[in-house]
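Hello forum,

I keep getting stuck at the same step: I have a sequence, I want structure tokens, and every attempt I make locally crashes halfway through. Rather than fight my setup again tonight, could one of you with a working pipeline run this one for me? It's a single chain of 92 residues.
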Amino acid sequence: MIFLKKAFIISGVFISGLIGAGFASGSEILFYFSRFGKSGLLGVILAVLIFSIVQYMVIVRSKALGTYSVDKYFSKIMNKPLAVISSVLSYI
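Reply #2:
Ran it on my machine without issues. Output:
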């Protein structure tokens, strides 16, 4: 149960960084996909699928590495300077 709680924290950082940077207000979705009409809906669905798959991969990988914090996850998958920069940016 503790892993699940910490996995949600990791996924929260992932969601805020990825989706918050691009699709937070909804106006970006409207701007990027609405001009394509009905086929733009396919783009929205594809974006959701890609975000979901990447989030699932991050959660599975963090469990496999035994990391329960963003800092430890970054330090396991990146070199130290890049992990520090990524940690600082994710907290900002």
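Helices lie at 2-22, 27-33, 38-65, 70-77, 80-91. If your local run keeps crashing, start a new thread with the error log.
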